[in-house]
Design goal:
It is globular and about 50 Å long. Helix 3 runs parallel beside helix 5. It has seven helices and no strands. It has one domain: Up-down Bundle (Ferritin). The longest helix is centred in the middle third of the chain and has 28 residues. By secondary structure, it is mostly helical.
């Protein structure tokens, strides 16, 4: 029971961090068999968010049903490198979302379903900054389509790996979150704009929650990774 409660808290924490991505930093067992379902559903996460009456800053209206209208103060200007970083991080978050959506459809594993939603919120948080700072964005929202060739190649490699088995798919989740955290660390050090830095910091906290979720799922299946 303690494990079940802990894992549910991890997922809800991840959702909270996503929805507070432009506020100040506020600092998962999946089913091991078809009869075992301990991860909170998306509907349960939404209910938690609503009952807590959380604001949804830096996300686009409608990303979470019936959520309050997003409120986010985005200020300052961005350099060319900061704009390029935003475009890269948006596509990296989209890559994570698209991979998890594919793996959820393949394995019907709740951990992928819930984190797909979280990654969509990550992507929308960066998109709001891109829009606010009027950075030219040639990407689109189509599944598996990317402007950045490195991310496009990585997407194909991860899909291939995830197709092997559920365990390999969960390892893909670990790799994605580790990569995301590493890239966010680099961007946090490089950017000067306070709004971008705050969003990146909170996205990193969400990615850490996702990493814990995938690691716990692997542990339940008897796999210590990495």
């Amino acid at each position: 029971m303690k494990t079940k409660i802990f894992l549910s808290v991890v997922v809800v924490m991840g959702a909270f961090l996503l929805t507070s991505s432009c506020s100040k930093d506020t600092s998962v067992i999946d089913e091991a068999a078809a009869s075992i379902q301990t991860l909170a559903s998306t509907a349960q996460i939404d209910a938690e968010l609503k009952s807590a009456n959380l604001a949804v800053p830096c996300l686009l209206t409608g990303t979470i049903p019936d959520a309050p209208v997003p409120v986010c103060v985005i200020s300052g200007t961005v350099t060319e490198s900061e704009g390029a970083g935003l475009l890269f991080m948006r596509e990296e978050e989209k890559m994570a979302r698209d991979v998890y959506a594919y793996l959820y459809a393949k394995y019907n594993s709740f951990v992928f379903g819930n984190i797909t939603k979280s990654e969509n919120a990550h992507m929308l948080a960066t998109l709001r900054l891109i829009t606010a700072f009027k950075v030219t964005d040639n990407s689109n929202n189509n599944q598996g389509e990317f402007t950045n060739t490195h991310i496009k190649d990585l997407y194909q490699q991860l899909i291939t790996m995830g197709n092997i088995s559920l365990i390999d798919a969960l390892k893909v989740g670990v790799l994605i979150e580790q990569t995301d955290i590493s890239d966010l660390d680099k961007e946090i050090l490089a950017v000067q704009n306070a709004s971008i830095k705050t969003v990146y910091t909170n996205l990193k906290a969400g990615s850490n929650a996702h990493l814990k979720a995938f690691s716990w799922n692997l542990k339940i299946l008897g796999v210590v990774y990495p």
